[in-house]
Write the structure tokens for this entry.
Amino acid sequence: MAMHKLDVRGAKCPMPIVKAKKELDQLGPGDVLEVTATDPGSVKDFQGWAKINQSAALKEQRTEKDETGREVYVHVLEKRS
Amino acid sequence: MDTEITVPDLLAKLDRGEPVFLLDVRNADEFAAWRFEGKRPAESMNIPYFEFIEEPEAALARVPHPNFEIAVICAKGGSSEFVAELLRESGVPARSLMDGMRAYGSHLEPVQVTPETASTSELWQMNRRGKGCLSYILRSGNEAIVVDPSRHTQTYLDFVAGLNAHITRVLDTHVHADHLSGGPELATTLGIPYYAAAGPGISMEQTVAALKNGDLLSLGDKKNVLQVLSTPGHTPGSTSYLVHNQYLLSGDTLFVNGIGRPDLGGEVEAWARTLFNTLTQCIAHLPEHVIVMPAHYSATSEIGPGGIVSVRLGDLKAKAPELRMRSEQAFVDTMVAAMQKPPAAYSDIIRVNLGLAQTEDEQATEWELGKNKCAAARH
């Protein structure tokens, strides 16, 4: 199991999920993907996506500040086995 | 074929009753809270865009194949573009709503109420269709007054310039709770007075000019164009403006089906008593032929013929029981029973409108999402 990071800061819908999906497809069972986004709409959208997503589970969502002081939304996904 | 459709074009199609299928690809909560609406009902459906990413075939199979166009709608126009392209690739005619619900929420539709005559001014109702907010432009010669402008100040500047006039005064009927006022910005940009009142004991940080009950404003070469009526109750500073003794710009005091809620300040009883006093001592004495032109409406069914949202005061009295109540206590009890929770962002919006806080465009868009909830409910 490995930890992967995906930076989609500045990307607008639908790109955060398009890119996260693409990245998840490359991962193995149990791998974790941490997606960092700036779009506040991504919080609800990742929740909705997780509900229908057969291949990954949403483990955690948190808000933090990035190195530029910008508010970012972090979505942690785990690839299912 | 264009790949995008603008908000005014989609509204016009729906208003004319042309067949369009609305496919909203926002998440289910957003769709439930606020939708794109024309004056006539249209078929619509919600399939969040991430379903088209996760299971494109299954999502595409759920989209009906009408023999007319599909308008795809999202929050800002990105996801709808993505989905519309998928649909077109699968042979379904689809266009994406340009800039999404954000553009719907900021679109202002000007509707002329009355042209200028030798003795009266021209009046325009600016209909913010996506929010149900109404603002007004009054013009006489090359001078204009703007009442209750939204924060899209450039739209007002451009529109008034198109009337070959310039804005000389900007007025708010009250400190709005549901949307940000463009008043302070217009006043600062143009160096003109901003008239607004929060009410006794509540100060506004912006520079505001005061008007008092009975004041008469002139405009261009016309005298006594607008009369100031103090109508507190929805807020302690609520003011209505009677234009040419004919049109009552009533703010949130009167709506076309009822009255404004007095419970947005956490003092429902006191404000309801004030509102009762306004209704019985001021509104009740206005002639029945006065046309009420409010700052809001709740449903597209309130848009009348000619696209104007208004009601004859006599007709409003006949249909709104709140205007016929004789007992102050019964009125207060009714208002207390009608209390609803205000949307979360209302307190933030009030702080900005009082000049106590500032905001930026992205945040403002977020706060203003959805329709206003300023009318008193009925059970």
Q: What stands out?
A: Chain A has a mean pLDDT of 94. The first strand of chain A starts at residue 3 and ends at 8. Residues 15-26 of chain A form the longest helix (12 residues). Helices of chain A lie at 15-26, 42-52.
